[in-house]
Automatic annotation (TrEMBL):
It comes from the Bacteria. The keyword Transmembrane applies. The chain crosses the membrane at residues 49-68, 75-94, 106-126. This is VanZ family protein. Pfam families: VanZ. NCBIfam families: vanZ_1 (NF037970). Keywords: Membrane, Transmembrane, Transmembrane helix. It comes from Cohnella nanjingensis. Residues 13-123 form the VanZ-like domain.
Length: 138
């Protein structure tokens, strides 16, 4: 059974947010950096944002597939979908003034997505282990 279509709305919203942020020019982002550095001292660039954004995107993709059914195969799909979207995002940035595609950004996107997939698979295994323990202790 497949997940209902509405379960993919968070992923669509997350992709839209990433797209809109990627459409900011280099000058606009440079203006945001000092404000972000006040919130997060030590932030030198927006590179860490890639980890976070694609961690969240991967979670929304997993939600679309159904969190409770996440397994290694679906986790791989989540990672691949996230990287594919990251690649389209980098391509899009080639057309934004003051921005350019960057392989390092795509790597950060993939790492963020993979971290989310690992967390979800471990969470599912922990839940399955807990349910087996409860079933045997009765």
């Amino acid at each position: 059974m497949t997940a209902p279509l509405w379960r993919w709305l968070p992923a669509a919203a997350c992709m839209l947010i990433i797209f809109l942020l990627s459409a900011r020019t280099g000058n606009q982002l440079d203006g945001w950096l000092p404000w972000a550095q006040e919130l997060f001292p030590g932030l030198k660039s927006f590179d860490p944002v890639h980890y976070f954004a694609y961690f969240v995107l991967a979670l929304t993709f997993a939600y679309g597939f159904g969190f409770r059914r996440i397994d290694a195969r679906r986790a791989l799909y989540v990672i691949l979908l996230s990287i594919a979207y990251g690649a389209t995002d980098e391509w899009h940035q080639a057309y934004v003034p003051g921005r350019s595609p960057d392989w390092a950004d795509l790597l950060h996107d993939g790492i963020g997505a993979a971290a989310a997939a690992v967390v979800l698979v471990v969470w599912r295994l922990w839940r399955l282990r807990g349910s087996r323990t409860r079933n045997y202790s009765g």
